[in-house]
């Protein structure tokens, strides 16, 4: 585990040769290999494939960039509000080709998406919005009565205008895009990602994934407005010269089989997604569908963006072993938008052991004590690998800001060329989060500024483990409890009743002068004795964590608020609970 920053080093990347724009242009000049494919299931049950080569992609991106350069000054913000199709890739690339700042956003399909677009547009203050003819009306409606920035329709831009493109001056510190966080606790914040950050993180990930080479194929569905989809689905494959094959998030949710069928048909070597996606595949793909899958082509399988659960990994591996899924592919990773995307990942040389058991009560006291898997007090946790090249990590006491002793839980602090430039128009928050300083174990100041991730964790056997979000910790009698760990216990208790459990949110509430624990769980079916269900949940949490549960609220499926990437908004759920706005079954 790397912990000490280097006092000085040359630039990690040169965006003139290693950046996204330079890479796409280089691949286009080198040949006409396949670049991006999208599979559309709107009219064809088996999917209709649309593909562009690197040469076509470069020319189309230059055409978009030329139109942008005619309508916006250098460095201006441009919102990319497109469906999950080739237009999104062209819009994002066009912004970078033009020397402008992209603001990736979801296409408005529901009121929640429109609300998010409105708040982000107000904050980012773009001069232009890029969209498609099919979504222009909804996008215009989301801009409000004042009209907002000018809207450009990608479909209507003339490809012959590519010759009018002027190559901008781009260096490592040039702002590339604003990555708006999910806003799980408040107004979304725009992370300032530079061309250097983007190129560095793609290079770091590629070095940990040596099979991502020109001519290889990846398959993914994660949305581009999410940092995981933008980097792993768009930027990384284009920089590496890989052929990326996509289906839309909606098509995946409708039929998870489509994701694995793309991998099988296109012989993809890599894929990835949040933990829930692997559970969805196990729960929804039939035995007959498994007969049509050959997953032996896979060489990498990334699980990230949300809590990685050992049970989910095991279920997926067992369910699809018969489909040729190679064992030992799991690559649980850790990252965050403030570090562009990835911070740690399992290197190819690391032992395949990913799941470790630790004493739950010791963790609650901030101590790391390994224990046997069959210990009743064991908490199984997934190792998220080691720091990527150039990344340095320290585990720091969030109160004293001193590095913790070995095998102690603390806040994860990060340095590296992938750490972003700060938050858009939030200097005070940037100073607090991106420019933090700490002392070492010897009490002496540690050189340099660090990113405070807000995530609690620890290092054990050189591997990073995530112990929960600092702001979400439940503190009972001076002991820290990770709500994700308690939620897993609740989920297991509910599974035994066959209720078709959805999301679970666990949080602390004040009661009788002390903190108490409340549980909110979504259920689909109502045939069980709900009083017994609540009793079983209380017993499971008390036995597993030594924590009394003051209330168990069972609500209808879909009642728990989530972010755009499906993470449970515990803080907002808690607010709804306290205001009595959650309707119990």
Kindly describe this structure.
The chain has 585 residues and is an alpha/beta fold. 32% of the residues lie in helices and 25% in strands. The protein contains 18 helices and 27 strands. The chain has a 4-stranded mixed sheet, with helices on both faces. Strands 4-3-5-6 form a 4-stranded parallel sheet, sandwiched between helices. A 4-stranded antiparallel sheet has the order 19-20-21-22. Helix 2 packs parallel to helix 8 (227-240) and helix 16 (483-495) crosses helix 17. Residues 2-10 have low confidence and may be disordered.
Features:
585 residues; alpha/beta; four-stranded mixed sheet; four-stranded parallel sheet; 18 helices; 27 strands; 25% strand; disordered N terminus
How is the largest sheet built, in terms of strand order?
Answer: 2-1-10-9
- Taking the alpha carbons of the first and last residues, their distance comes to 48 Å
User: Per DSSP, what share of the residues sits in E-state strands of 2 or more residues?
Assistant: 15-25%
What would the average pLDDT be, to the nearest integer? 87
User: Largest sheet at a glance?
Assistant: 4 strands, mixed
Strand runs, count = 27
Q: What structural class do helix, strand and pairing data support?
A: alpha/beta
Query: Which runs of at least 5 residues are low in confidence (pLDDT < 50)?
Result: 2-10
Radius of gyration over alpha carbons? 24 Å
Determine the number of helices (DSSP H or I, runs of at least 4 residues). 18
The helicity comes to 25-40%
The dominant shape is globular
Multimeric status of the protein: single chain
